[in-house]
Protein 1
Amino acid sequence: MNRIGVALAVMLLFLSGCSPISVRTDYDHEVNFSAYKTYRWMPPPKKRAKKSVRKGSLLDTRVRRAVEAELESRGYTVKTSGRADALLAYHVGVRDRIDVEHYGYGYGYWGRRTHVHRYKEGTIVIDIVDPEARQLIWRGAAAGAVGHPQPNPEKVKKAVAKIFEDYPPQ
């Protein structure tokens, strides 16, 4: 590999470590979120999707701990049994992504370069459901480049913190 190739590979490794996390949230504007003080995790579906996260896996534990820490810092209490004000569920996914960038100047091939960057994008979706109405009342999602299908605990914490940045909605 020539010097330019090595420099480009090092730059890509550096950039993937500080890639941005994009966040989206949506909620039912008619809901009074101050009425929710306790929550319980929803049980996993009886028929698990082929690529879903197994309960008790490292990723499952990391996501649950990060969500619980964020909600606890906002005054919410997790309940392991009995009635709770809200139910929580989460979903994660990883997919292959490709970014193609053309740069340079000139006519024809001379002076123009194309850079192809292949990476994996991880997504965490967190849902809050009203148990009485059986309705989704809030959803937050974060997506960003991941270096491995099992992201490290700090990346999970950072993504979950960004999802809950504006929770509860005003």
Protein 2
Amino acid sequence: MVVDGATLDQFDISEFIFYNPLLLEIIKDDLEKISVEELSRYEEQIRSCDALMLYTGFSRYRSSDPDRYLDMQPGLSEEGAQYLTGFPNLKCIAIDLVGIENVPEGRRKLYPVHKILFNAFKKLIILEDANLGLLAKKNVKKVYIIPMFIKHADGAPATAFAEIE
């Protein structure tokens, strides 16, 4: 995604465990973007988290309407991505969408949201297509993300799970 970006083999296994996760429900519909205004309502909580999980609810279309899920997905706005770069404790952003930005739009624009985030953070994990609905209304204590380790890869399939209270 970015020149000289971190690859999976440059992460220590401990960097895939998150002790201060925060799950935000920011419900979105077709092509809507998560804005700075929506994120800034949770500024203090974001400041202290290491894994930010964004539940849009759009994942409800994953099985029932896969074309809509892929083509009409909402995403994080470029301004929202820029806002998140101001939180140095952030090590992971998870989202219940196939991509953190709308994939067809991202492809046309060369993935600006990904580039903003990856250029700002030396090491950042973006977990896409996460089943965050299972965690809604729960107290998430710890999150684990176990990627398939592929040397020199900047992304890979992963198994993710959480401890809840």
Protein 3
Amino acid sequence: MNFSSLNDRSSSNSSNSSNSSNSSKSLTSLGSLSSLKDQELLNQTKSLVAQERQLLTQVLHHLREVERRKLFSDLGYPSLFEYAVQELKYSEGQAGRRIQAMRLLKELPELEAKIESGALSLSNICQAQSFFREKEKGRRLNPEIGAQLQIQNRVEEALAQPPGAPKISTQEKLEVLQSLENCSAREGQKRLLQLEPALVRPKERERVIAENLTQVSFLVPEELKQKLEEVRSLLGHKAVNLGWAELIGLMAELSLESLRIKKFGKKGAKEMEGVQQMRAGEAKLAQASQAERVRVKEVKLGKAKTKKIPCGGAPAEVSVGAPTPTLELARGAEAKLEKNRLRKRAPRAVSRVVKREVWLRDQGRCKKCGIRRRLEWDHIHPVALGGSSEVENLRLLCRPCNQREAVKAFGVEKILNSVRARVSTL
């Protein structure tokens, strides 16, 4: 007797029975709905929608706590948005609207009742939050007044408001939100446009076209366009026929050179450029044939030319590129001097040499989530607990991942208290 066939039959029978039970349940629920009277069906639907809104506010509170603890960093996500899209399976639009609403709800708890009642939709809250952000930028950067006057205005605003106070008053925000109640998204956009026509504009967007191509769309103010045209003019004939993307790429190369010197010094910038060229060469070799890679490797290992270098009066054969005793002594002396400098400095201070080594080792990326933005040098063993500022105890982390590590080491309340104390000194 074939027992496997019996097992297959029994499993198929059980699966069929489970499927039939599920389908019978769905049919029963459909049957129960079809048997409802019109008013009962309407009442139940309204009740379910009210429950859905209550669940929405709970989701917003949970997202706020996840962001407060920076828990998304433990899962390898660089931001709450990536966590909501990748882990919670929201679409990008759904994730963005919920995060915007959560942050505005954090500032204005009065909105919770508006959300639960349905008076304010997530779309209008999201539009209002973008409106407030743009308006604050407009207050900080007004092209009609000089830079010195702008700085003076900022100082006066900071002195007039308590630490951490919003740039736009709570009353102003509530009035704007009140004008958006019971409006569709399109009606809300029209009302915001009436309030500040210059502020309601399309957002910057990124869309991946291919593996190595991303389409970026954004609005360019006339002042910035004039600056770009001036750069094109200063670059001379080689920039005449460049497109915008090529022009920005050329500007990025020029900026990288000066920024590397500013961050790591001239010597460090040259070393970084050399390392990057070496890595680019290695990437090309990886694409070459196996025979070519073997040939190059053999040349590197021992088939290079040698030259005679006098050492203590006697000739000695040393491979080209190999470190000489004098060079080794110089490096050792430099490392010793660097350690002595670090001992005299504050324990948290990180020298340019150490920063450069950590940056090259971590390839300019966050060690946890891999992004390149908002990078900071993090002490693996905290300085407050006796950690040093040497290469082995440092790594690159983005700000959210760095904050999460601090929360894990010291607790969320202590970190929040230290941030409040720092803000109060500004």
Protein 4
Amino acid sequence: MPRLKGSCHCRAVQFSLVSHTPQPYQFCYCSICRKTAGGGGYAINIMGEADTLEVEGEEHLSVYHAKGTEDHGKEPSPAGRRFCKHCGSALFILDSRYPKWAYPFASAIDTPLPVPPERVHVMLHYKAEWVEVLDTPEDMLFGGYPDQSIEQWHRKNGLYKPE
């Protein structure tokens, strides 16, 4: 099982977790990801096991719960985006609806990540107009979320690494 290591830009926060699904294949264009972590108009989340998450410098973390967004109405989202309160780096998401998982941003991972065989672009209904989306045979496009989970995508492509 690969253990991924990540950090913020100023290195005040460092973290690691085990991931069976380390492919950075899913680009999210929702306004939350785009505005909190997406310099290219999107963010790339991967997935790891929440019970393996180890954080050094936890006192330097802040949490943001988006509200008033396209998929959460006016209530705060249960997804808490952790970021460094010093340098602002987006680090990972913990979501009470999915307590088994942690969702680090690929941009915060220091461990080399594999190049995915395809890219899945999600929440395109919410992308900024200036963003150009690749539309090649290796790109799958979705206005919302696809029916396939991160784990299912890894299994379908023979990339799930349970041990």
